[in-house]
Each structure stands twice: as structure tokens, then as C-alpha cells.
Design a protein that fits this description.
The complex is a heterodimer of chains A (114) and B (142). Chain A is built from four helices and no strands. By secondary structure, chain A is mostly helical. Chain B has 142 residues and is an all-alpha fold. The chains are: A mainly alpha (114), B mainly alpha (142). Chain A: It is a multi-pass membrane protein. Chain A: It is found in: Endoplasmic reticulum membrane.
Amino acid sequence: MGDPTNKSSKDDKKNDECYNTAAITNNIEALEFGRTCQSCAAGMAAGILGLTGFHGFILYFVSVAIQALIWNVKAQGNWLSYFPERNSLTWSHGNGLLTFVLLWVFFYGMVHVY
Amino acid sequence: MASTIYRLITIVSLLSLLHCAYSAAQHRFYLRLTEQPFVNLPADVVAQTVISLIALIYGTSFLANPFLYIKQDQHPERTCDEALNCPSFITFDNRTKAMSPEFSMLRALKQQQRSQENVSRGTHSGRVSEAVAPSETVDSHE
């Protein structure tokens, strides 16, 4: 349970900070672009390597980790001054996984089936 | 400039990835002709694929918009002196100047310059030197 008063005061402190909405939108666009390109690249690589089943998803999550590392390098280590929360590992996986599976299947078919 | 480098990295790694796809397809074609079973790809193709995958992720994530600072204060690195600086209250021409040891030197230099100017103007006409003279007397009383 903890003490609720402490938690609420912490939340208030977080809500007190003013954010620049245009800058947040710009950063999230950059994240979305990066995630899409990264899942495209991972899908192509998984198809070329001929991975099947869970191995492909392992490759996807490895590429997510690499992407998060590169994003943290791009943010020069202080992620919280560019984003309201730490979401470098969790951003937009629904979109990314769909793109990944699309290119994975396409390249697997092009390289290994035909 | 930097964007050109990242664009180059992206294009080269994308081409390299497509080249990997072609190599893998050719390997499968060769195996089919020689009627060997497919075990795995040759190591060089795998290595090229992995390297170009990492290079592509790197290139595209730096090709995207640069991250902007999201707090309302857009200049987080400035100090108090810069943030609270109020230039309209700075007076450069105050009495402290007269007390500094450099002042006498400066005044001597100024007077020298002025006398040189007066000499050069005096050759053109006498009236200009008369017009300049009152200000010079004010300066000498400072």
C-alpha cells in the first residue's frame, strides 16, 4: 500500500512541469520513424537469414535493444529531457511487429521459397 | 553535412542488405542444382546481413528528426548570470572609469588622436576646428 500522500505529492510534482508540445510531437515522430525503419530492416534480415518461428521474433527484440541503445546515444544519455517518460524500449511495438512480419514473410518467400 | 553521412550510411546498408538477399537466393539455387540439403547460409552472408542491419538501424535513427528539448525553457545550459542579465541597467560611462589606472592612459591617447584630427581638419578650414573646440574643453574638465 505505502503512503498515498507521498505518492500524490510526487505526481503533483511531475504534473507541475510544463512541456513544449511541439518538441514532444517532433521527438515522437522521430521515434515512430526509427521504429518503422528498424522493424523493416529486422524483417528483411530475418527473411534473408531464413529464420522461422521464435528465432525471428528473437531477432526482432535484439534489434529493438540495439535501437534503444542508439536512441539513448542520440539523446546523449538524458532521455528524460527529450521525452516525458522512459519509453525507448517499449515505444510502438504493435506497429513495429506488423511491419516486421510483413517484410519477414516477403523476404523469406523471395529468397528461400522461390 | 551530418545528414548527408547518415543518408549515405542508410543507402549503402540498404543496398548491402539487398545484396545479401541476392546472395542467399543464389546459394539456395546452387544447393537446389547440386541436390544438397539446406543447413544454413554461409558465414559471410550472415555476417554481412547482421552488419548491414545494424548500420541501417543506426543510419535511419539519426536520419530522423533531431530530438528537441521538451521542457519550456529551451536553453537549459545557460547560467544564472546569463538568464538574469538585464542589459539596460549596465552603465559603461560612469565615474569608476576615472579612478582606474588605465583611464589616464586612455585620455592621453584620446587627446593625442583629437589633436591629430584637429590638425588635419585645420588644413581644410578654420571653422571646423572652432566647432570642435568647445567639446574638447568639456572633456578636459572631466
